[in-house]
Amino acid sequence: MKVTETGKAQQETAEKFVHLLRRNKLKVTQPRLSVLQIISAKETAISQPELEKLLGDTVDRVTLYRVLATYEEKGILHKIFDLHGTATYALCSTACDEHHHHDEHVHFICSACNSIYCLDEIKLPKINLPKDYRLQSIGINAVGLCAQCKTVSH
Ligand SMILES: [Zn+2]
Ligand SMILES: [Zn+2]
Ligand SMILES: [Zn+2]
Fold this sequence. Notes:
By secondary structure, the protein is an alpha+beta fold. The chain is built from five helices and six strands; from the N terminus they run ααβααβββββα. The protein has a three-stranded antiparallel β-sheet. The mean pLDDT is 90.
C-alpha cells in the first residue's frame, strides 16, 4: 500500500516537472528531470559537485552545467553563493520567468554545515538608490546555526 502511494507521488512530481519544462519551451530530457527531482526533494540549496555525486554516471558534467545554466536563465533555479563562494542552486518561486527573477528573500547559511535555506517568508527591504543608479539585484544572507547544528551543539 505504502509503496503504491510513494510511486504515485513520484509520478505526480514527474508530471509537474514535465509541465514546467514544456511551459518554458524546453525539451523534456532525463538529465533535466533528474536535476529537478533532486533539487525539489532537498530542503537546502545544492551545489554542482553535490549534484554530480547524486546523479552518478547518468549525467556528465558538461550536460549538468548546461542544464543549470538554462534553468537559471529560464527562472526555474536561482543561484546563491555559500560561505566559500561556491555556487549553489535552489528552486525559484513561481513568480520567476525568463530573465526576470523575483527571489527577493533572505538566505540563511549555516556556518557549521554550510547548508543554505531559502527563507521565502522574509522579504528584502526596499532599497532607495541615489539618482541615476540602477538596481540589478539584492542579496541578504543571514549566517548562523541551522536547527540541526544548533541541536548538536547543545
Ligand atoms: Zn528566480
Ligand atoms: Zn547546519
Ligand atoms: Zn532562495
